[in-house]
Amino acid sequence: MKIVLAGGGTGGPVAPLLAVAGGIKSQHPNAGMFFIGTKRGPEKRMAQNAGLEFASIPAGKLRRYFSWRNFGTPFLFFAGFIKSLYLLKKYKADCIFGTGGYVQVPVVWAGWVLGIPSLIHQQDVVPSLANTLCQFPAKKITVTFESTAKHFLSGLGLFLKKASHEKILVTGNPVRQELLSATKEEAVRFFNLSADLPVLYVVGGGTGSLFLNQLVKDAQPKLKKVVQVIHSAGVAGRGRLGLKNQTNYQVYDFIDKAGLAYAAADIVLSRAGLSTISELSLLRKTSIVVPLPNTHQEYNAYFLDKTQAALVLPQEYLSADALVYVVRKLLFKYEMQKTMQNNIFKIMPHDATARISKLVSELAEKHHAK
Predict the structure, then answer these.
(1) Closest CA to 211 of 292, 137, 156
(2) Backbone angles phi, psi at 143, to 5 degrees
(3) Does domain 177-345 have CATH number 3.40.50.2000?
(4) How many CA atoms lie within 13 A of 102 on its CB side?
């Protein structure tokens, strides 16, 4: 059987795709995998690092606000749809798995035209526009949180109705299981860390976060007296701000061995993308979360705050001095750390990788047998 993974643009949709790809490979070592993404996102590097064949298609992002770029989106969608038809036929795909990136939309609809089943996964609390546009052609929909299921409908046109329990399933969010195998001792050796200072791991997603990068740069003189910093800044972010390694500060374009960075970390500073939150949950990490303003991340962060699963700080109130103060205080609040670690672990199921891998494999096998 052959399975197409569709997603990208940022690292958020890619991490669960790769997690499920690994789960399918463990169940079906001979299964074929093919990744379809964008030309400029981080997914090509991430897919190739995972040993997956990769192809890009044109993909237009439909913004939920007025933008002149929206006028070009239908043309990009059509071009992506045509290329998707070609790639799906060429690869003889048996199933498509997408995680909400806008690049999945032409792939899923092309699959529907060709009679190829698809499963889409909704990571965030509120469905992405890409998944909303794919809910009709998708054969199965999986969601991270039970509260998300009510947002999905089935049918088309005037015949919309609530999706059935057979179509929509609550699974949690897929996470790369190899993250669990990394140890603190390995991490200390890999990053050449000192035993004298705790570690702050800063991650802004696959493409980095300009705000977090600037924040850490401004806080660096005081911050590195309190913690050792491992900073995943993104290629553009690192170059734009001229970030360089210093004593107690290491900066990377992208950390391929993320498991070691998490293992080293006493505190994680991150955005509120669901892929990162799922990793924090699986690993029970103490975290400071700064959601990207006016995006779905604010809903994710609200959920974390409500469940006392992380320390949520709004971007507009966060300064370099405030960050240093919060990190210093949090390091000595052991009970607060323990509460957040326990609560973040409980926010979602942790068998999503195996469950979704099984669902995708079943769809592919059924189609392959036709």
Answers:
(1) 292
(2) -130, 155
(3) yes
(4) 18
Element (H, E) at 250: strand 249-252
CA distances from 195 to 90, 116, 199, 325 (A): 54, 53, 10, 22
Distance CA 19, CA 56 (A): 20
pLDDT tens digit string along 290-307? 999 988 899 999 999 999
Q: What is the pLDDT of residues 332-351, one digit of tens each?
A: 999 999 999 999 999 988 99
Q: pTM here?
A: 0.81
3-state secondary structure (DSSP) of residue 225: coil
The answer to whether 1 and 368 are in contact (CB under 8 A) is yes
Q: Check if the beta carbon of residue 348 is closer than 8 Å to that of residue 278.
A: yes
Domain boundaries, the chain: 2-175+350-368, 177-345
The reply to whether 177-345 shares the fold of 2-175+350-368 is yes
Encoding tokens for residue 262?
A: 């998490």
CA-based torsion, 45, 125, 292, 77: positive or negative: positive
Of 162, 164, 110, 113, the residue nearest 140 (C-alpha): 164
Q: How long, in residues, is the chain?
A: 370
Q: Taking the domain 2-175+350-368, which CATH number applies? A: 3.40.50.2000
* Strand, helix or coil for residue 196: coil
Backbone phi and psi for residue 175, each to the nearest 5 degrees, phi listed first: -135, 140
Amino acid in the structure at residue 4: V
CA 165 to chain centre: 25
Coil, strand or helix at 281? helix
- Asked if pLDDT for residue 127 goes beyond 90, the answer is no
